[in-house]
Design a protein that fits this description.
The structure holds two protein chains of two kinds. By secondary structure, chain A is an all-beta fold. Chain A contains no helices and eleven strands. Chain A has strands at about 5, 10-15, 20-25, 30-35, 45-50, 55, 65-70, 75-80, 90-95, 105, 110-115. In chain A, strand 5 (about 45-50) and strand 6 form a beta hairpin. Chain B is mainly beta. The chains are: A mainly beta, B mainly beta. The interface of A and B includes residues 4, 43, 45 and 108 of A.
Chain lengths: ~120, ~110
């Protein structure tokens, strides 16, 4: 009965390191979203999965960002060669159905990434 | 362009006072709008959505297409309402993808 689970809760990386952030959505949820939330800002959309298919990656800020959801459940957001501007909270959200504009999103607690 | 604007970063009121958190949007089409809330040390969660026409914890929000607004209101604020509130718009493409405003911190003083 757990909600959306994200790990690690905190991540400190040196500039230039690669990081991998994990999201375990609610079981059976078809849709999965990644958001980036900079300090003092609202969440900004990064990418969307419907099962294992990445249908929208329009929000990924650069080709250093990569996301996958190979079996349609757990998802990983990878950031290569991290830079200071990548410092933010990364939120994962899932929803039960696909393609419904009024769908309720369930959010995880987020991973706070600090790049030094 | 699709955009959500919350003009106030902080709204401070006394317990029992009315509350109105402002939200304006820009969207070419028929919008679907939401309010999400984040209480201290909790995760972001849905408060209410336009389509449901519901009142949650005494909060209501009315969509005004003429003014492109979806302000959140409560007649009598409670201390437990203190939180960060985000207005959000469901973008095009029927994915459920949300566009969020910058958020307003509501502080209810005793």
């Amino acid at each position: 009965g757990a909600g959306v689970s994200q790990s690690p809760r905190y991540k400190v990386a040196k500039r230039g390191q690669d990081v991998a952030l994990r999201c375990d959505p609610i079981s059976g949820h078809v849709s999965l979203f990644w958001y980036q939330q900079a300090l003092g800002q609202g969440p900004e959309f990064l990418t969307y999965f419907q099962n294992e298919a990445q249908l929208d990656k329009s929000g990924l800020p650069s080709d250093r960002f990569f996301a996958e959801r190979p079996e349609g459940s757990v998802s990983t957001l990878k950031i290569q060669r991290t830079q200071q501007e990548d410092s933010a909270v990364y939120l994962c959200a899932s929803s039960k159905r696909q393609g419904w504009v009024n769908e309720k999103l369930f959010f995880g607690s987020g991973t706070q990434l600090s790049v030094l | 362009a699709q955009r959500v604007t919350q003009p106030e970063k902080l709204l401070s009121v006394f317990k029992g006072a009315p509350v109105e958190l402002k939200c304006n949007y820009s969207y070419s089409g028929s919008p679907e709008l939401f309010w999400y809330v984040q209480y201290s040390r909790q995760r972001l969660q849905l408060l209410l959505r336009h389509i449901s026409r519901e009142s949650i914890k005494g909060f209501t929000a009315d969509l005004n297409k003429g003014e492109t607004s979806f302000h959140l209101k409560k007649p009598f604020a409670q201390e437990e309402d203190s939180a960060m509130y985000y207005c959000a718009l469901s973008g095009s493409g029927n994915t459920g993808k949300l566009i969020f405003g910058q958020g307003t911190t509501l502080q209810v003083k005793p």
